[in-house]
Amino acid sequence: EEEVGNKGNNYISTVIPGWFSQISLMWPGEAHSLKVEKILFQQKSKYQDVMVFQSSTYGKVLILDGVIQVTERDERAYTEMITHLPLCSIPNPRKVLVIGGGDGGVLREVSRHSSVEEIHICEIDAMVVDVSKQYFPDLSVGFQNPRVTLHIGDGVTYLNAVSEGTYDAIIVDSSDPIGPAKELFEKPFFQSVAKALRPGGVVCTQAESIWLHMHLIENIVANCRQIFKGSINYAWTTVPTYPSGVIGFMLCSTEGPSVDFKHPVNPLDENGSHSKAKGPLKFYNSKIHSAAFCLPSFAKKVINKD
Ligand code: SAM
Description:
This protein is an alpha/beta fold. 26% of the residues lie in helices and 30% in strands. A hairpin with an 8-residue loop joins β3 and β4. The chain starts with a strand and ends with a helix. It binds S-adenosylmethionine. InterPro entries: PABS, PABS_CS, SAM-dependent_MTases_sf, Spermi_synthase, Spermi_synthase_euk, Spermidine_synt_N, Spermidine_synt_N_sf.
């Protein structure tokens, strides 16, 4: 039995004879497992444990602190949705900020939008970017776009220095709130997001699972209600390798031109949907965009309670 991980740090990741199991206090009592063909990379960065392995059925897999971030097979269910839900909801997004997202997948998706002129990304961990460039070419292709500027640093610090009203859209592609991403789920962060957006600008943040983290989601929703004076919505998608198989997004807009997230006004053009460099869209379409905002009754009761 080979142990990869740190019991003192809220997670235990064990490769039990040939399998990776995702065990964490964030989802007690359950563990999804993938069969490992080969461990390709394993190192501790300044911020987290970074591992890449070749799985039997999901392609290469990126793990940070024992938690699956990306697999080659299902990443598009996440990257396409976290990107196009906000960007297809506003006309002509021009300036976009990505926080986290060091694998590059969200950048690849943002660059499908021909109206976008500048894409800034602030990722805390240079090792994630390097590892993605080495092992995940279909994701890291996102960094090759000349519109992209990469900044290595903490997203919270970065945002605090941004002038008011700079961005049309901010996408927070973060890891879970245990570890370096903790502050990305807290109120002061959402306040600086709101400030950095133009009137009627939009934010989309990774907002965990309705099956596992209703309390976290309730808290995020309550914070956003106080801070964002435009629309506030929760959407979700299925990602088989994320804990519980689903993940959600918090979508908010600032005061200004109103944004109706459920009815996208900015469909991807032929060029974006069938880009030669990025391949065709695999998951996102306008119907799934609107459907993503339909919530199961138990979640609706908590999220839309006011
Ligand atoms: N799709 C993934 C998921 O939901 O599990 C998230 C993927 S992405 C690789 C998450 C990235 O956020 C990681 O590369 C991590 O280093 C980065 N990150 C965590 N905390 C951060 C912070 N405070 N500022 C900027 N980036 C951060």
